Amino acid sequence: MVTSLLERCVEPQENHGLPRPGLHRRSLLRTAVVGVSAAAFGGSLWRGAAHASPAQPGPGPYGALGAADAQGLQLPRGFTGRVIARSGQRVANSSYTWHSAPDGGACFVDGRGWIYVSNSEIDPAGGAGAVRFDSSGTVTGAYRILSDTRLNCAGGATPWQTWLSCEEISRGYVYETDPFGVRAAVRRDAMGRFKHEAAAADPVRRTVYLTEDESNGCLYRFTPTTWGDLSSGRLQVLTAGSAASGSFTWTDIPDPDGSPTATRSQVAGAKRFNGGEGCHYADDTVWFTTKGDNRVWQLNLLSATYELAYDDSLIGGGGAPLTGVDNVTGSASGDLYVAEDGGSMDICVITPGGVVAPFLRLQGQSGSEITGPAFSPDGSRLYFSSQRGTSGSASGGITYEVTGPFRT
Q1: Are the beta carbons of 20 and 160 closer than 8 angstroms?
Q2: 174-177 and 186-187 as β-strands: parallel, antiparallel, unpaired?
Q3: CB of 113 within 8 A of CB of 132?
Q4: How far is CA 279 from the centre of its chain?
Q5: Domains and CATH numbers, the chain
Q6: pLDDT tens, 290-327?
Q7: What is the pTM of this model?
Q8: DSSP helix/strand/coil, 46
Q9: DSSP reduced 3-state for 75
Q10: How far is it, in rounded angstroms, from Cα 176 to Cα 168?
Q11: Burial of 63 (0-12, 13-18, 19+ CB in 10 A)
């Protein structure tokens, strides 16, 4: 499995408008090993484990949260946090002023350390920026990678080391960007025009899953004509019944441009999801969240079935630990980390055993939301943002790093 996955990620490809980073083959293989490992093994504990019921509250793998630190950050014992960027202020060792309303994010390997990419959910002049770290975790620079786009909310990383930045507007676009800040971003029209939210690449089936932030939105997949080139391909929508679990199929979208008929209204039987948000792929499974009903969905690709991994309405006594579900990522252990838009300003962990518990909490930021959770390539650091910080405004965003003994 690992060998075939690596071959798929590093096979020679043409540039197709956004050249790949200038790394020699050995570097690409090293990158693929780090970048694909979570996808190859991160969900292994979930495979085939159709839960009798969605996740329920219980003791988290890291224990109870401690008292808030000077930054208002509550963490379990053994974990520490720091601020790496603030909206409107220059990032350390750079001339880049960190963007307002930081949103979806991801980490990428480079030859000296890693890069954290972050969207800017403002309109107009959204886009995305990046922070570069050396191998010790020191911030060494920051820069803009996408400009003059609108409400860039979430997105997703590709196996060929690009960032897909998604516009959360009616008939919005997906932009493929270069985390290394060298090459110009490219608009990917073939991926459809709708209210994009998140994207998750599947290197096994060579496709990209896309969520839609509408109350009657859909889940899509885009299969490029050539893996590694998103300039052309096939956009499809998930079709299924109305139940919370069952089987599904994929059906072609006749007009990905979405005009005059919206993409979500073109296919009879398209399954509706209430406010699609984060999306994460690992080990033949796609997890995605819907904020309108506070659910985490699990798409089992081997069996072509779907089910609920979490539903706050199924937790009795009003004790749901996770509300306002939003961005989601995963760790190499198979744990899911789900950020809250509001709620208690938590990032909650959902374990492969079906336990949901708070992992961290921000105090004094009730007018904000948590966005952009992403692990460093070695899995030892978690990055995320408070989109509006303590001020409650887009100009008050704060981006954090948490370091500690994460499960591997």
Answers
A1: yes
A2: antiparallel
A3: yes
A4: 6
A5: 2-403 (2.120.10.30)
A6: 999 999 999 999 999 999 999 999 998 778 999 999 99
A7: 0.90
A8: coil
A9: coil
A10: 15
A11: exposed
